Amino acid sequence: MKPYSQLSKDELLSMRSELEVKFNEVKAKGLSLDMSRGKPAAAQLNLSNGMMDVLNSQCDLKSEEGVDCRNYGSLDGIKDAKRLLADMSEVSMDKVIIYGNSSLNVMFDTVSRCMTHGVLGHTPWCRLDKVKFLCPVPGYDRHFGITEYFGIEMVNVPMLPTGPDMDIVEKLVSEDDSIKGIWCVPKYSNPQGISYSDETVRRFAHLKPAAPDFRIFWDNAYSIHHLYDDDPDVILELLEECEKAGNPDLVYKFISTSKVSFPGSGVAAVAASSANLADFKKHMKYQTIGHDKLNQLRHVRFFKDMDGMREHMRKHAAILRPKFEAVLQVLDSELTGLEIGNWIAPKGGYFISFDALDGCAKAIVAKAKEAGLVMTGAGATFPYGKDPADSNIRIAPSFPTPEELAIAADIFVTSVKLVSIDKLLE
Ligand code: PLP
């Protein structure tokens, strides 16, 4: 198909009339569709229902080291859970602390601790005139929400197909000691589905930050969330790379079983060097006497081990794959060659990221809404909700059915075409 930019004004006008007829027909149906929520569908949650049966009044409710999971104790988690979450994080058990039900909560808490108490004896960030975080964009809105909440200035760093632009990261981090952290989703990133290359991970491990209390916030939320089990993305394990580079304390790794078992009722963990873990625990012991060990036990009894978890993720993939493919098929067949948008077909994770012509994202999201399709708000993938190019739109295909998705994707591409034509006619 010919790029829209090569069409004459008359051709664009006649195409717009045809698209408007189609759009108004769909609009008249009064549909209510939602591609905004990155949450698992009920069919995926059903996969973990067996977890409700593995603990009952007849069960032995002790962990493998004999801890009674009904009672207080085990501040940093039971051994069984540490093994499972350590395997998931690709580190040894002594490098892991088990937390509560949400990794985002741990990230918030970590930034909060750095603000009030500092990192390993350094000045608390709240006492500094300026604290900045690097934010690879597009990225996860809730990361940006945390740093915004604490008044931390966010600096955009462009994402490349290999991960964040490391030339920029290295330069900024080495020159500016007010830069204290960077948000990273290294595997099947939210929203682009990009997995960091080996070179990117190594460059992270070798960073020479001006600030001794700079930390990489490595949110491995989609570590085992492959769509294609026969062709998974594999990334280097950063903690080990940091150790090899002589930078063992540079990274905090976050993980959870949210989109493995039940979002909001999973188990979260941090992996880090022993010095960093001691810092975490110093704070944690005032916070709680221990997290929910029955939930930890339930997860271990249900999944048993990493093989069990991988097998479980294959069932998730079988549900998610047709949904991603339904959307990608419509994008491919309707938009290829028109040069009015770019997207990446992800191999895992929860999102497809779409880049429209500059200045069109907000208008596309609004147009789709007119026809009953809710998308993630344009700009949400950038710090402060401000996409400087007004171009990025996050598509979340997990929640609707494949049938709903085919209709939703059709509304989306029609909206993209209409708004792009208007832009070209300006
Ligand atoms: N990190 C990323 C990158 C996410 O996309 C999400 C959820 O969408 C989370 C963290 C939330 O994780 P949790 O449920 O463990 O708080």
From TrEMBL:
Organism in which the protein naturally occurs: Hespellia stercorisuis DSM 15480
InterPro entries: AspAT_Ic, PyrdxlP-dep_Trfase, PyrdxlP-dep_Trfase_major, PyrdxlP-dep_Trfase_small
Gene3D superfamilies in the cross-refs: Aspartate Aminotransferase, domain 1, Type I PLP-dependent aspartate aminotransferase-like (Major domain)
Name of a matching Pfam family: Asp_aminotransf
Taxonomic path: Bacteria, Bacillati, Bacillota, Clostridia, Lachnospirales
Matches recorded under SUPFAM superfamilies: PLP-dependent transferases
Protein name: Transcriptional regulator
Annotated PANTHER family: AMINOTRANSFERASE, PUTATIVE-RELATED (PTHR43799), ASPARTATE AMINOTRANSFERASE (PTHR43799:SF1)
MF terms (GO), sorted A to Z: L-aspartate:2-oxoglutarate aminotransferase activity
